[in-house]
Amino acid sequence: SPLSSVGLRNGFSWMDRNVKMYQQGTHKFLARYTPSDSKNYLTVADIEIEVTVACPYASSGHKYVSEITKEPTETEPGERTKTCSMCGDVQIEVIPATNPGQQVPEYTVPTGLRGESGKTLGSVELPAGFEWQTDPETKLYQEGTYEYVVTYTPEDTEKYQIVTDIKVEVTVECPGHQYTSEVTKEPTQEEAGERTKTCSVCGDVQTEEIPKLPPIQLERPGKASGLKLKKYQAKSLSFTWKKGDASGYRLVFKQGNKKISTKYVIGNSCTFTKLKAATIYTVEVTPYYVVNRTKIYASAATKLQAATAPAAVKLSSAKQNGKTAVKLTWKKASGANGYQIFMKSGKGSYKKIKTITKGKTISFLKSKLKKGTSYQFRVRAYKELKGKNYYGSYSKVKTVKIRKK
After folding, report:
1. Against a cut of 0.90, is the pTM above it?
2. Most C-beta atoms within 10 A of its C-beta, which of 136, 160, 220, 367?
């Protein structure tokens, strides 16, 4: 594997992360440390770090490739070199000297060999004369039948040859499963879940089905009560309602039959913004419970209509008209049903002097005013909904002093 597969603590990184780790053992590699405050501290390079390299097949048997590196003769034994293709581990086996006078012994290949997960191959007993040619320290892990190699040495080695590379089968069994379980798929009301169990001794994996969640039999929450308009402005509406025992509330906001917004809230109030002035909207509030991550809604929503306020009226002019009258003119407020006109003189307070019930009307004549007196005027629009008026902001004040003509 590349050196990059070995994780380091925060701040450390390998100087050459593409170096291949090969031979087993403890090796030193170079790393650098970059401090989090790189403005005030330098990066430190060429830090030696020891890494213990292990072959991934060490427990189950190295992936050996064998080669005869010395041929046996009548007087001298030969050698067979086995090299692991993964980690480079090297083992040397002796090939007995060839003796023309030696005969091939008769033997029976061992059968019925059994081992236990978690132990080594050397723990598996062999009949007399046989010994493990495969590394006896090879770990036995997963259950199943596996092939290994043994050597047979006859009692009379002068008359008979030593036989190598005899293939035998070993059945590996777990002495007692020790499972740890993990839920790998949560169950829902629509689908069953799954639990995976893994044996820490032999690696055996089993899966169990977790039944579907039972249908929810709880009663639905009751309808929301006490729904009312808390505050209205030209571009926003705020609503409130009584806090019940529901987990939350779904709010659907509409203009006519068109859905504008859907919100989910935990509390008992909500504000909708970026609305049109002097416009009628409807809010629908539906309580819900949350059971097994599923929302259970009330059987019906509680509805309320409300209107936004008209925009502030722009009072265009206020001029004396005749001897004792003042004519007011303003720009039409979109969507308004009418206007209210207020007046005061001197240090008095504003009094409503006229309610105009037509949204198209944009002027008003106030007569019978006193000569030499200053009057202040302001106007506001209103939107009517089911007998209730929603008032906009007042216009800027216009002052007119009645001149003596």
Report:
1. no
2. 160
